[in-house]
Design a protein that fits this description.
Elements (H helix, E strand, L loop, with lengths): L10 H8 L1 E2 L9 H9 L3 E4 L7 H14 L4 E4 L20 H7 L2 H17 L4 E2 L24 H17 L3 E7 L20 H6 L2 H9 L4 E4 L17 H11 L5 E3 L6 H4 L4 H11 L4 E2 L7 H17 L4 H30 L7 E2 L2 E2 L5 H9 L1 E4 L12 E5 L16 H7 L4 E5 L5 H12 L4 E5 L6 H13 L4 E4 L11 E4 L5 H12 L6
Parallel strand pairs: 1-8, 2-3, 3-4, 4-5, 5-6, 6-7, 12-13, 12-14, 14-15, 15-16
Antiparallel strand pairs: 9-10, 11-16
Helix pairs in contact: 1-12, 1-13, 4-14, 5-6, 6-8, 11-12, 14-18, 15-18, 16-17
């Protein structure tokens, strides 16, 4: 058993702390975290559990920076389905798939800039976004609407626009999940995915957005816990010298920070363990270890720190490699400190322009709703359609949420319809083998109200498709709202595809359903 090196302040120990990006539990920084920041910890990761309001978040980041002014405060804020800043209410910004559907790079840049501005105001300066994955497998259980789309060049240009918008606000972008997580059918939170595409396909498809991101100056890149035999048949990308050093550093010429995806994810922890995995990741070329989504305590930080120290002292990990990784973390922290001050100075002088999209102009605070409205597509069925004027019944068909999205963030249209049509009722329905009975339960609950059926990735869930068909057969005037990938044939008297489940996407759909609002 390794003896923990507690409280040491030597260079090696400081470097080992510097490469960690841990999380913690609570809405204020625990004493142990502040102490480790004082000893050399350079970064902290924030999650939904750490945030209740923007005021509280601002106070939290100020507390962290009182210990060390250049500490990196990171967050996984993609907007859309994946939000930590608005985890309890849903995001004010549509996600990548909605932005890719609109395909207006100026709009994407404006959305990312406004999101960056809000993060910077709260003291967050490293965003683990955007996802540059190509949505080449529509059955992917973890990417889906987090991708800009299936078209490689579209994904590349919107990745660039997102990076430029975010970094203009003084927040470092972290483009993910290198070398591309889109063609997987396994969630790396649960197991190790494998992509068997040949090398030519990977270069022409997966790698193109990352090439564009590097050219655009993305300050960080996040590695994926996936096995790609064409690149390395033995180790997943996060642990592969061939992929992180040979491909990303040497072939693609990337010089910024390489961050791992969460090391407690089963793709790594179940096979290598987080300590061994962290050593292999740094040795492979990673500079920062992300941990804290699930493991968020001091003992985890100490265990990873000491695993790195022990690996150096045993000769398994070169001291120069650890020092180089720590230097890149500190360099990014220095950039974010300077960029944060510069962006604040520009904003105080009125230098950040209003967000614009297409031919219209809106205040920055409305750009998310503007984008969500533009992303909506509507298909009218065979029956004449009249806007819903009386309080309806909203039936949400809910698949199991993937871990990246989480199950604590609300989604759907019920809240927005209730605000527009008081008295709206709602129910949530999960997977069932008896889909006829499921549809019957919805019909009984709805009684004579108009039914709004809300689904998410209906093409991936046969139970959902069958229940929906049974419901529409009984009530042809049913309105269907698809808030995931719009891969299935349109159904219902009115079919609305929002291309994401953010709060503003629900608002845009509700405006169409009722005929109310600027989006109609």
């Amino acid at each position: 058993m390794t003896t923990l090196v507690r409280g040491s302040s030597d260079t090696l120990t400081r470097d080992a702390l510097a490469v960690l990006q841990p999380g913690f539990v609570g809405t204020t920084a625990p004493e142990w975290l502040l102490r480790r920041i004082g000893e050399g910890l350079c970064a902290v990761g924030l999650f939904g559990r750490n945030i209740v309001s923007t005021g509280q978040l601002t106070a939290l980041t100020a507390q962290l920076r009182a210990e060390r002014d250049d500490v990196l405060v990171a967050i996984d804020e993609e907007g859309g389905d994946v939000t930590r800043l608005e985890v309890h209410n849903g995001s004010s910004f549509p996600g990548n798939y909605a932005l890719g559907t609109v395909d207006d790079t100026e709009l994407t840049r404006a959305v990312a800039r406004e999101l960056g501005r809000r993060l910077a105001e709260c003291g967050v300066d490293l965003n683990w976004a955007p996802a540059a994955d190509i949505n080449s497998n529509p059955n992917n259980p973890v990417i889906g609407v987090r991708s800009f789309g299936a078209d490689t060049t579209l994904a590349a240009r919107h990745t660039v626009a997102y990076i430029e918008g975010l970094q203009a606000a003084g927040v470092a972008a972290c483009t993910k999940h290198f070398p591309g997580h889109g063609d997987t059918n396994v969630d790396s939170h649960h197991a190790l995915p494998r992509i068997d595409a040949d090398l030519d396909t990977l270069r022409a498809r997966e790698l193109l957005p990352f090439r564009a991101a590097i050219a655009a100056g993305s300050k960080a890149v996040m590695s994926a816990h996936i096995l790609l035999p064409a690149l390395d048949p033995d180790r997943p990308a996060t642990l592969s010298p061939r992929i992180l050093t040979g491909l990303l550093r040497e072939e693609l010429g990337y010089e910024g920070l390489i961050v791992t995806d969460g090391m407690e994810m089963q793709a790594i922890s179940a096979t290598y363990g987080i300590g061994r995995g962290s050593v292999l990741a740094i040795a492979a070329g990673a500079d920062a270890i992300c941990v804290g989504g699930g493991l968020a305590d001091e003992e985890t930080v100490l265990r990873l720190r000491d695993a790195l120290v022990t690996a150096v002292r045993s000769g398994e990990l070169a001291e120069e490699r650890l020092a180089g990784a720590a230097a890149r973390v500190r360099a990014l922290a220095d950039w974010t400190r300077r960029a944060r001050r510069a962006a604040a100075g520009v904003a105080s002088k009125g230098g950040l322009p209003s967000a614009q999209s297409g031919g219209g102009t809106a205040p920055c605070t409305d750009i998310g709703l503007v984008a969500a409205r533009r992303a909506v597509t509507v298909t009218v069925g065979q029956l004449p359609y009249e806007p819903v004027a009386l309080a309806p019944y909203v039936a949400a068909f809910a698949p199991v949420a993937n871990i990246a999205v989480g199950d604590e963030t609300p989604w759907g249209v019920a809240a927005e319809l209730t605000a527009m049509l008081p008295g709206t009722r709602a129910g949530t329905y999960g997977s069932s083998t008896d889909t006829s009975r499921l549809a019957g339960n919805v019909l009984a609950a709805a009684a004579d109200r108009r039914i709004i059926a809300v689904v998410r990735d209906v093409h991936r869930h046969p139970w959902m498709a069958d229940a929906l068909d049974a419901l529409i057969a009984a009530r042809p005037d049913t309105v269907v709202v698809e808030m995931g990938l719009d891969r299935a044939e349109p159904r219902g008297a009115l079919h609305i595809a929002t291309h994401g489940a953010a709060r503003v996407c629900g608002r845009a759909a509700a405006e169409v359903i009722t005929g109310k609002g600027a989006g109609v």
